[in-house]
Design brief:
Blueprint (H helix, E strand, L loop, with lengths): L1 H13 L1 H13 L1
Helix pairs in contact: 1-2
């Protein structure tokens, strides 16, 4: 799970939209 989060964070840097998905995932998680 942590590895996936890191990948999402890395993608978030290139895609701000991915950051929203990551935040939403944390909230839902």
């Amino acid at each position: 799970r942590e590895e996936n989060n890191i990948a999402f964070v890395r993608t978030g840097e290139a895609t701000p939209y991915a950051n929203i998905i990551l935040i939403s995932g944390v909230n839902f998680g």
